[in-house]
Amino acid sequence: MAMTNPILPPTRNRRVAAATRLALGAACALGVLTLSLAAAEPAGAAKRIPVIYDSDIGDDIDDTWALGLLLKSPELDLKLVVTDYGKPAYRAKLFAKFLEAAGRADVPVGLGVSRDPNGTGPQAAWVKDYDLARYPGKVHADGVQALIDAIMGSPEPVTLIAVGPLPSVAAALEREPRIAQRARFVGMHGSVRRGYGGSKDISAEWNVRADPRACQKVFAAAWDMTLTPLDTCGLVHLDGDRYRRVRESDDPVARAIIENYRIWSTARDPKAKAAETRSSTLFDTVAVYLAFRRDLCRMERLSLRVDDQGFTRLHQTGKTITVAAEWTHLDGFRDFLVERLAGKGR
After folding, report:
1. First and final CA of the chain: distance in angstroms?
2. pTM, rounded to two decimals
3. What is the pLDDT along the chain (346 residues), one digit of tens a residue?
4. Which of 78, 125, 206, 323 has the highest CB neighbour count under 10 A?
């Protein structure tokens, strides 16, 4: 039974009742619309992961492939790139030109630790006429401080993807140890049970061997760590139709990768034609993948310690690290890599 207000005249009561029904109807309609919009929101609208990419780009070509994968991964929000292990001007030019080619000149470039080795490397021809001063984005002469500021100033934890020797990261830890409490570390480092090319003999993997002390400092920090050692990343390459799709892609990121790969390959061996048929080993791409996915690898929690010779050894007193121990679906990762860089196959 509808109730009327005994204080108001009957006509006014009817008007109030009608207005109330109208308001309730509008509220219900708004509620249905809100629920409909929420249901229609795409699953891919999840919050992106803020990342910093620390790399010795310009020595091995895999750093360039990894940068391309990072830029083509919508799960990741690239906040800063930082050079590592010397050659800061050369590496910064590679970063800047690649980011500009990819339409991502919004990403700042930081020059990391400046020390030997200096000079350039096998991708120098790609940036021989590139003026770093004309990069539309921000260039930080002190990349170590830029890394610290990006982590400490972030409203949420940052993922630091590091795919080279680690003097710049070690320097940042020395300057501001608290970054380890506000970031997680994902790296391409070490050799746990397998060495280069899947060898049963473990290796002093380059990123560790190049600067064991820097790596020891990074391993001792308080952050959560995830690694792809040679056990997994050392098995990744593309050939056949998979490689052809990347090589022939019109995507600007894929084009920049292949341009650099051809220059890199020719600089190493002018007679070689490998860049037309297959990739080199794409170690660093696995670290980018592990920043947001783990489903194609078997992950283990292992205690690891870096020795002075650059070996990453299982040791009961070592740092407990999440390690991509072996592939459960290596071809699945290869397909994932191709689809990100070249799009779905025809």
Report:
1. 66
2. 0.87
3. 333 333 333 333 444 344 444 343 444 333 433 333 333 334 445 799 999 999 999 999 999 999 999 999 999 999 999 999 999 999 999 999 999 999 999 999 999 998 777 899 999 999 999 999 999 999 999 999 999 999 999 999 999 999 999 999 999 999 999 999 999 999 999 999 999 999 999 999 999 999 999 999 999 999 999 999 999 999 999 999 999 999 999 999 999 999 999 999 999 998 888 999 999 999 999 999 999 999 999 999 999 999 999 999 999 999 999 999 999 999 999 999 999 999 875 4
4. 323
Q: Cα dihedral sign for 312, 317, 322, 325?
A: positive
Which two structure tokens, joined as six digits, stand for 331? 């071809």
Question: Which domains are present in the chain?
Answer: 49-342 (3.90.245.10)
φ/ψ of 101, rounded to 5, equals: -60, -30
